[in-house]
Amino acid sequence: MTKENVQGAGEEEQQAQSKKALKKQQKEAEKAAKKAEKQAKLASEQQEAEEDDFAMDRYGICPMVQSQQKLDRALVRVQDLTPEKAEQQIWVRARIHTSRAKGKQCFLVLRHQQFTVQALLAVGDCASKQMVKFAANLTKESIIDVEAVVKKVEQKIESCSQQDVELHVERIFVISQSEARLPLQLEDAVRPEGEGDEEGRATVNQDTRLDNRVIDLRTTTSQSIFRLQSGVCQLFRDTLINKGFVEIQTPKIISAASEGGANVFTVSYFKTSAYLAQSPQLYKQMCICADFDKVFCVGPVFRAEDSNTHRHLTEFVGLDIEMAFNYHYHEVIDSITDTMVQIFKGLRDRFQTEIQTVNKQYPSEPFKFLEPTLRLEYKEAVAMLRAAGVEMGDEEDLSTPNEKLLGRLVKEKYDTDFYVLDKYPLAVRPFYTMPDPNNPKYSNSYDMFMRGEEILSGAQRVHDAQLLTERAMHHGIDLEKIKAYIDSFRYGAPPHAGGGIGLERVTMLYLGLHNVRQTSMFPRDPKRLTP
Amino acid sequence: MCQVSGVIKMALRELSSLERFLGLKKPNKYSSQGGKKVPVLQNNNGPALIGLVTIASHLVREAKRPELLGDSAERRAVVQQWLEYRVTRLDNCSKEEVKVILKDLNQYLEDKVYLAGNVFTLADILMYYGIHHIVVELAVQEKERYLNITRWFDHIQHYPGVRHHLPPVVVLRNRVYPSGHY
């Protein structure tokens, strides 16, 4: 009984199994048939494509440009695509910013630097179905050469910088193909802060940007920031050269720290060690002693401060000025403030497009300044702060929040974003600062501020070897280490003053940005050494 | 422990400041009671009065200034509400709560001169005493952010006879931060 039962059960099971297997087989067969069908279809399509593609030589991937031929072909820049070029047949090299296929058409946005233009590819006389498909499948950020006819458009294209024209593409070739997956999307990287939150869209955080700096630098905002920064440098040079300054180059590897050893980088230098210059201070002054009278220097400056703030970098570009004067160091202040004003004016007049572009992502009030520049004394500033309820001592240095508050108070009272704070307490300045002849507690030193943040620190320097020695001793500095510096004042040194400006800070504060890393191409801070 | 004794000291100084504001000739003597050091007033002709608000209300009646507790039923209710708010929410609130309190109070005061509308009441005095230690710590920017509190606070600290034991807080009359620049 039991045996039979077992057998019966076994048979049933077998039967059930075979039924299942049958079904499975059937399904597989169906699948295979479908697959074969698909393949056949694909093959036939491909064949069709190959057979029918009349536009085959109008698109494709170019062989790597190895400078094999000199093509006599003028490439028009995207920013030059204006209605004057309407109906012209031109070649353009640009990146694919976005591409959107829609049936028989494909819309591309082509980008070169901060300029964009819409391009249209439609099945017709010039383009085949396959060509449109090819264009639609191109990866974002690939670089392409396009031959097209410029056409005026009826309705402005709001999403592009070239709003009055579009390109009707006739040929399209890939010069360099981008990988399909980008580490960050350019649209996300230019979205104004806060706007993304409302629409639930992504914005890119700063670290991601900096990790993929090459791509981040392609955004319209970055392009504008660094074009403007280049403008700052150029305006700085032009203005000073016009004033009779000489550009100098100073060493960055130095034997002794200029202002105490705490915040300098040490580098090993053969059998001994050296420091990275934290300012070209000493060399500027030696040039003055060597009768160069008015010098400036643009170059890297290093600070080994372990401060991770929005406005500190460990390496930045310093714009340094040193100048001999006749009788009063205000001659130098006037010269520097005038240079700054020339820079502000130059930026305002020549870089309006860039300023507007940055403003789209980071809105800020236009930068305001007075002519002549407002000069406040430290005492007045302390009085203003006290009137606003801040408790501080007469000879206390300004804290960062107080600096910012003072900036707001000055803006409210004088309507300027740029001013000079003169006559700092001697105690808070370096040893080479000239004391104030009328009040030994103060000094002939000054800071300059943009939007309430310090951009320049300067002073009249002690040009008398004896007083300099005294001051150095007062600060407890090892005289042996600065012997060469002090000695340079022994053989006749003219009275002189100067100051150093941080390029990144000027750019940041002029544009009203919030982080100095935004205005440093490859920022260096205590936590970042790459890229 | 130190903070608690500070608070109780404050409450006692507050009551004596209130007495002076009310023009009471003879200063009362107070003691404190329990772990929370609640102020106690031993009354000559009756049982002891316990608690800041209770004693303060009593002093107001003694000085024959009942209008300071509200001159209508509605106003009396509002004054009571703020007196209660003072001792339950404001006193000993945590740092996170401070922000919420400032935000809410700022909004409440947007269309009011005094806490109970357009008349000065005991609620203004006790809220001023209670919030002083917070306002004195605010940065210029924050005082501007809580503009209505600052306006009300400045008004009360200049109200004749109120300030007494507390240092004046500097208030700027001009806005120095552009609106929305926080």
Secondary structure topology:
The complex is a heterodimer of chains A (531) and B (182).
Chain A: H1 2-52, E1 59-61, E2 75-76, E3 89-102, E4 105-112, E5 115-122, H2 129-136, E6 143-152, E7 165-176, H3 186-190, H4 195-199, H5 206-211, H6 213-216, H7 220-242, E8 246-247, E9 253-254, E10 266-269, E11 272-276, H8 281-289, E12 294-302, E13 315-324, H9 330-350, H10 352-361, E14 374-377, H11 378-387, H12 400-414, E15 418-422, E16 445-450, E17 453-460, H13 465-474, H14 483-487, E18 496-502, H15 503-511
Parallel strand pairs in A: 1-7, 2-3, 5-7, 8-12, 14-15
Antiparallel strand pairs in A: 3-4, 3-6, 4-5, 6-7, 9-11, 10-11, 12-13, 13-18, 15-16, 16-17, 17-18
Chain B: H1 2-22, E1 30-33, E2 38-41, E3 49-50, H2 52-62, H3 73-90, H4 95-108, H5 122-135, H6 140-145, H7 147-157
Antiparallel strand pairs in B: 1-2, 2-3
Helix pairs in contact in B: 1-2, 3-5, 5-7
Description of the molecule:
The complex is a heterodimer of chains A (531) and B (182). Chain A is α+β, with helices and mostly antiparallel strands. Chain A is built from 15 helices and 18 strands. In chain A, the strands form three sheets. An eight-stranded mixed sheet of chain A has the order 8-12-13-18-17-16-15-14, with helices on both faces. In chain A, strand 4 and strand 5 (115-122) form a beta hairpin. In chain A, helix 7 (220-242) packs across helix 9, helix 7 (220-242) runs antiparallel to helix 10 (352-361) and helix 7 (220-242) packs across helix 15 (503-511). Chain A is elongated. Chain B is 52% helix and 5% strand. Chain B has one domain (4-158): Glutathione S-transferase Yfyf (Class Pi), Chain A, domain 2 (Up-down Bundle), CATH 1.20.1050.10. Chain B is built from seven helices and three strands; from the N terminus they run H-E-E-E-H-H-H-H-H-H. Chain B is mainly α and 182 residues long. In chain B, a hairpin with a 4-residue loop joins strand 1 and strand 2. At the A-B interface, helix 12 of A face loops of B.
